[in-house]
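Sanity check

After download, print the first record. It should look like this:
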Amino acid sequence: MMEDGFRKVLIIAYYFPPMGLSGVQRTVKFAKFLPKYGWKPTVLTVEPTGYYAFDDTLLKEAEEAGVKIVRTRSYDVNRLLKKQGVIKMPSERMRKILQFFGDLFFIPDTKIGWKSIAVKAASALLEQERFDLLFATAPPQTDFLIGAELKRKFEIPLVVDYRDAWLDYPFKYFPTPLHRWWHTHLERRVLKAADRVIVTHRRVKESILRRHKMVDYKEVIIIPQGFDVEDFPPLNSDRHIKPVKMKIAHAGTFYAERNPSVMFHALANVLQATPKIRGRIELHLVGNAREEDRQLIKKLELHNAVHFLGYLPHRECIQQIVDSDVLWFV
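Expected structure tokens:
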């Protein structure tokens, strides 16, 4: 049903601004640009809670684009940390412990406490307004379960968006074969409910088709990660004339095997072998820093060469990328 020339889509997304980090950006940009293609988005998400980073500029961007946002409470660990606001990044050892117990006791993930509340809130919306499409994005995979239940209840077409793989996610832990079997069962149930599946990478598509034979090749569409032209400032053509320092930049969060140790040691070796270039190379790290990374900098005596900038608003992060000479990707 068209409303003012628009079809209506209900987006189910636990992670959404003012939460920050990479998990929100794809969804907020989808919501921003959908009206240009004839879709009016309503986002169902959680109330502000404790999290590792916040970005009010992305929230403002969504609001200025006319995105309707409906928030609910959620029974999950983050809710208990609401009063703390920004949560300090745990050490890698603590992260592994938290992940182990989270994967052991909560299926499909620690956000399962949001499912019943979200289904109830979405049901109220769907009874009040007519929506043409359900769009669920994950992780967390709880979003997929919410979408599948609403599809069954209201018989509205469902699209699921895999920002990361489910079973093949490299940082997902399955404590027992039973855990893996149950996750496989849940994924199959979601895929049977979905009318279309979106993935960010061909490997994820191939994994889904290999594991779930009932899914047709044409039902899985690859939409890779993109960018918003409006986020990038005009390039200054003379900014690289006679640079005083070479600036290397990294934007993102370090965890598990994604850590800066190799780069730190390589930079230390270069500066030790060629002392005259000390002060002419800088490594700028945009994102939350762990204490073990700061200690490694101290140990390698790189405090004048490596700069932790912390989490920055999205466009300030983009500016750091544009201003760099070399981008480092882990």
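If your output differs, re-run the checksum step. Summary of this record's structure: The longest strand covers residues 39-46.
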